[in-house]
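Design request, tokens follow.
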């Protein structure tokens, strides 16, 4: 697994507590961060139970101190900045030192290697460039691995198809929405690409969508995870076994907490993922609440990798919909759609107010022609499993349109 890519990080004792101390010392270079942590010295944290008592870092903290209030390196050490997308509020600027940039490229190469990519492959990199981390992150990872990057970015589908024909890539990199759109275009045009794999991230996508994409592309898919705050994508990725995402425990410390109480949960239990970076310099994260829902999986993977695993992201703690006193997650709806015969993978939830009452409409694409039985079946499952009865509207395949970036699942048009 890309031996030697992160040799520059192998300094000092390898114990987890010492690595946490190193990250705490780096964080405390910022006066604001030191005040946030409430520590005088890193060695006040004497064990993991004491570490679990430290306050959480949130995106609001990052926004409050953006752009450089929590920067933990000297100004002349900062060689790059990236920014969050701002989909949940004001964008957050993240500073990177030269070593951060090096680590980002190395961990990306490690992730791509986990998905089977080698120096003989060509990868079509379709995510956006600029302030977003994905485009440049994937490209540098591909190049660091010795493979050939085709940095198309999010260009029009006609041009994507042209590069697909000319360059014959072995890997597609992008969002699941992009892969679905590309796959449907490939099928319409009767092409047979020689893809070995598709590495897809930036949005939550379930097994139903995976099955559709793999059928259309004729290739295995690999879910990849990350965010700008943690360098970018690549901090966790599936192997060919598709039994959870391996994460790099030499670079990150993962905890899972109860979103309501903040209590650390044991392995196997689903909660909110909390991440601490172990070697990040520009803006290290100490107990950062990601709002992503997952579980740390017990045991080892069949692939034999020593790296631990998390489940696929099951949703976000702040994605919960409250409908007539019932709490719903889009991921729960997606699971029921995938389990209902006659339905495709694409759906959207539309919430409105009619005559003073909340109404839930579920628009779902068919997988084939047929009657209304899939709609009745899905409504019945929703009522029994989630205690919410929707009005299900069936649409033809492609009826919901397609996105090259993230697919929006929820449209909340209720009166406030």
């Amino acid at each position: 697994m890309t031996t030697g890519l992160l040799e520059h990080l192998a300094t000092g004792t390898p114990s987890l507590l010492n690595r946490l101390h190193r990250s705490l010392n780096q964080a405390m270079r910022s006066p604001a961060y030191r005040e946030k942590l409430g520590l005088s010295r890193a060695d006040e944290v004497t064990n993991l139970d004491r570490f679990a008592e430290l306050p959480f870092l949130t995106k609001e903290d990052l926004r409050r101190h953006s752009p450089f209030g929590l920067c933990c390196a000297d100004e002349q050490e900062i060689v790059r900045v990236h920014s969050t997308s701002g989909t949940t509020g004001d964008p957050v600027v993240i500073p990177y030192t030269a070593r951060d940039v090096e680590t980002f490229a190395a961990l990306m190469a490690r992730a791509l290697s986990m998905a089977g990519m080698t120096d003989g492959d060509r990868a079509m990199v379709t995510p956006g460039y600029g302030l977003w981390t994905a485009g440049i992150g994937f490209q540098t990872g591909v190049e660091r691995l010795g493979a050939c990057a085709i940095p198309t970015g999010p260009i029009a589908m006609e041009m994507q198809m042209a590069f697909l024909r000319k360059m014959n890539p072995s890997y597609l990199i992008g969002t699941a929405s992009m892969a679905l759109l590309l796959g449907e275009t490939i099928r319409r045009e009767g092409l047979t690409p020689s893809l070995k794999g598709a590495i897809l991230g930036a949005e939550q996508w379930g097994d139903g969508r995976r099955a559709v994409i793999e059928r259309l592309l004729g290739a295995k898919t690999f879910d990849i995870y990350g965010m700008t705050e943690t360098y970018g994508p690549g901090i966790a990725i599936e192997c060919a076994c598709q039994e959870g995402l391996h994460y790099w425990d030499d670079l990150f410390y993962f905890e899972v907490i109860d979103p309501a109480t903040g209590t650390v949960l044991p392995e196997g239990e689903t909660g909110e993922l909390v991440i601490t970076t172990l070697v990040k310099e520009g803006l290290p994260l100490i107990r950062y609440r990601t709002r992503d829902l997952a579980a740390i999986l017990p045991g080892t993977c069949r692939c034999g990798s020593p790296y631990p695993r998390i489940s696929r992201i099951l949703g976000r703690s702040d994605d919960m919909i409250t409908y007539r006193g019932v709490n719903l997650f889009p991921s729960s709806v997606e699971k029921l759609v995938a389990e209902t015969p006659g339905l495709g993978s694409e759906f959207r939830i539309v919430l409105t107010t009619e005559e003073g009452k909340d109404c839930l409409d579920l628009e779902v694409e068919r997988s084939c022609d047929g009657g209304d039985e899939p709609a009745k079946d899905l409504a019945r499952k929703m009522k029994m499993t989630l205690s919410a009865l929707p009005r299900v509207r069936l649409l033809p395949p492609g009826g919901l349109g397609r996105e090259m970036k993230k697919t929006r699942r929820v449209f909340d048009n209720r009166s406030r």
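Comment from the thread starter after seeing the answer: thanks! The two ends are 52 Å apart (CA to CA).
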